[in-house]
Amino acid sequence: MKLSALFADGKFVISGEVGPPKGTDTHEVIAGAKVMAPYVDVVNVTDNQSAVMRLGSLIVSHLLKKEGIEPVFQLVCRDRNRIALQSDLLSAAAAGIENVLALTGDHMVLGDHPEAKPVFDLDSVQLLKAAQALNEGHDLEGHEVEGTPDLCLGAVVNPGSDEVDTQLVKMKKKIDAGAEFFQTQAVYEPEVFARFMERAAKLGAPVMVGIVPLKSAGMARYMTENVAGVRVPDEMIERLKQTPKGERKKLSAEMSVELVTKMKGMCQGVHLMPLGWDDLVPDIVKGAGLNHA
Question: Are 251 and 243 in contact (CB under 8 A)?
Fold first, then answer.
């Protein structure tokens, strides 16, 4: 079911996320999605996340669809020109994939092929415009398409950015280009998210707050130091530091529940990014008192 329809029905939407493997063995990624499926409405499939070459998000989205799991096909601009991007959007629609998340993409210098040539023919706003054009029956050049897709288009936003005004301007541009919902960067500061939503809510598009369960104090410090707009409070880092390794997974779920509980009333959904800890998703959903799919 398209996310736009769920939001229109007033549902608090829950999404999970899986990353395709670096290879052709899809057993683990499908198994992880199945663990989450009873507790989420959709499962995002990342697209060469962090500029690391992996199995394609389109084929994994298709495999999830065959398993009865509703995917969100993530599509980045980094690796494709406008011809390939539009072709992949049409391919997704032809495979029955209805939800698409448009992203510009991390630069390749961050990944495992740093010498790869960047494309960035379009940015995320232009990609949304291209997808919306296809929904209207024509490509970016105005040529009519044979068979019109009906894609639900989403985008991303960073509530913790130091340049919140810029984020809000970009949100408005993305909405004007066709974005029907937003998923956020990971948020660990509910008070920051509250201030952001006071302004973002005026734009009228549903927002799903992003949660990445923290696996260690080192991971928390790394995200604070290296991921733009993400700050993990010292108190959370100290809790992780003081907890024995064997108990950190339980603590991670508890902290995620605390965050979702504090922020669920501020937005229209939650996007859980477990980074391999797929079995935490049921605990977080139930612990936060959310109505699962």
Answer: yes
Token pair of 10, please? 């007033």
Taken in order of first residue, the domains within the chain and their CATH numbers are: 3-210 (3.20.20.220)
Closest CA to 4 of 153, 130, 137: 153
State residue 3's pLDDT score. 97
H/E element holding 82?
helix 82-94
Residue 43, strand partner residues: 16, 71
**254-257 own/partner pairs: CB under 8 Å, 24+ apart:** 254/287, 255/213, 255/214, 256/211, 256/213, 256/280, 256/284, 256/288, 257/283, 257/284, 257/287, 257/288
- Give the separation between CA 235 and CA 258, rounded to whole angstroms: 13
Residues in contact with 276: Cβ distance below 8 Å, sequence separation at least 6, in sequence order: 19, 32
Spatial contact of 188 and 231, defined as CB atoms under 8 Å apart: yes
Radius of gyration (C-alpha) of the chain in whole angstroms: 18
Q: Is 216 helix (H, G, I), strand (E, B) or coil?
A: coil
Bridge partners (DSSP) listed for residue 71: 43
**Neighbour count for residue 262 (Cβ, 10 Å):** 17
What does DSSP assign to residue 268? S
pLDDT for the residue 255: 98
CB atoms within 10 A of CB 119: 17
The number of CA neighbours under 13 Å toward the Cβ of 57 is 30
Q: How does pLDDT run across 259-285, given as a tens digit for each residue?
A: 999 999 999 999 999 999 999 999 999
Q: Tell me: the pLDDT tens digits for 116-144? A: 999 999 999 999 999 999 999 999 999 99
Low-confidence ranges of the chain (pLDDT < 50): none
